[in-house]
Design brief:
There is one protein chain. Helix 13 packs across helix 15. This protein has five domains: 81 residues, no CATH class; 56 residues, no CATH class; 56 residues, no CATH class; 58 residues, no CATH class; 145 residues, Endonuclease, Chain A, CATH 3.40.960. The strands form six sheets. It has a six-stranded mixed sheet, with helices on both faces. A two-stranded antiparallel ribbon has the order 1-2. It has a two-stranded antiparallel sheet with strand order 3-4. 21% of the residues are buried. The N and C termini lie far apart (142 Å). The chain is α+β, with helices and mostly antiparallel strands. The chain contains 15 helices and 16 strands. It holds the Pfam family DUF4379. InterPro entries: DUF4379 (IPR025487). This is Treble clef zinc finger domain-containing protein.
Length: 541
Amino acid sequence: MDNSFANLTISSVSVNNIPEEIITSNLLKDKRPDIFIQIHPTKNVCLNIDKLTCGSSKIIWWLCPINPCGCHEYQTSIKRILIKKNSLCPYCTIHQPIPCEHSNSIFSDEIWIKEFAYDLNIGLDPKKIAKGSNDKIWWRCTKHNTCEMHIWEAAPNSRNGCPWCTNKKVCKCNSMMTVEGIPELFCQELNSDIDPYAISISSHKQLTWKCLDHKTCKEHIWEGYVSNVVGKGSRCPWCKGGSSKTCKCMSFMNIPKLFEEFDQTLNPDLDPWKISKGNNIDIWWRCSEHKTCNKHIWKGRVSRRTGPQSCGCPFCNGSHQKCDCISFMQNELLAKEFIQELNPDIDPWKISYGSDKVINWKCIDCSTIWKDNIYHRNSPSDPRTCPNCNNMRSESKGANLCRQYLDNNNINYQCETALDNYITNRRFDFKFIYNNRNFILEYDGEQHFNQCTWHKDEEDFLSKQEIDRIKNYFAILSGYIVIRISKKEYNSIVKYLDYFINYNFEEPLVCIDDTVKYEYIMLKNQLQNYSEDIEIKYLSM
């Protein structure tokens, strides 16, 4: 730059005397395009804005870029607008701005204009009141416009919403009594000097409360802060799980079973009515089912007896050693049919009536010996009895004729018995020994050969025939000679049984009285699922 202009002031130099190169290098549009675009597009008609420089003191019209609604237009010099860091827009200034209905007046805010109380602000135009105004005006809450309390006075620049809705002030419609369940908990009798409708939800005031679940109990009353009870859901300390507080209505003694099994003589220093259901204290119990038995006494936690998996007498449920009073021998019939000689290694008085142990029994009516577990024999709903006696009562005419033959020939037999190597619920009609050979005798009715009402469908019928083949397989595997009879006349049954039981057998096989009917039972490929490959031979007359 030429030093001849260095000491000249702006006031003493004419623009016309400044060289062109200096002016063009300091143009506002080049140096500060962000400011240049704020020049009002229509109100500077007599001015060549392209020639304006950054240091000019010329006052021109500007348009605010923050709220370009058309209202925010003002005059100031270029130099001043470049010096100020904050906006010079009189509508946007933080100090008493000029109101604009489009952006910074209360009229421009949808919520504020709804809450502006026209009837209480007579003579005031919301379009001419800026949001930054310090003048107090009246507001009416839109959420509770029918409530006379939700009206307040506040300046726009310090307004924070309805003081009742923000819980800064309390009225009937925002008190703690509006919260569900609180009116029932609050007891006016115990808070005689308190107006509950004047207490907020977040209040730290301490009140007296009464339990909803035990309204008649005088002990279920406690003191607590409103903020904890209403806001945090704090409730009766007597009912709270794990609480050390216990009253009579919360005691485990309210459970009939535990009331009956608590023994005061074994717990002389305890007051059971002060022990809650969830207490972990160990106390002594006496079984209500065996009160006269001194073995049915045990120590256990109260909480374990009242929980979802409550435990009872350990002697009755099998977790402790058995005692005489719960042995199956208490059942009169089972005691008579248990024969010690048939069960030499068993002490019956140490086996409970619910045991699944299989032992030998002897019928007191027909002297039949059979095996069955104790649980099924002692079942309260359907106890099992002698299979021979049952069979005599329910077996078919043909099976009765087979029984008659065995009785007439003085052959000792067992009815409805299973094999040790076979499923226990698959039983054979008759099992006997004759001429030192083991025999199984099965009588097959018409349902074994033709599908009928005994079967659900064809698949069920075929599965029943498969069971017959499997029963043959296991009987042969166990060394038995199987005789299958289908004849209905006694003379025919006698003829075939005489022939079969007196036959000179060299190995176990299956004897059948009708090769046509029993064709299904001789199918070999049906037994391919069994591991031991044995050849089943058949005999017929």
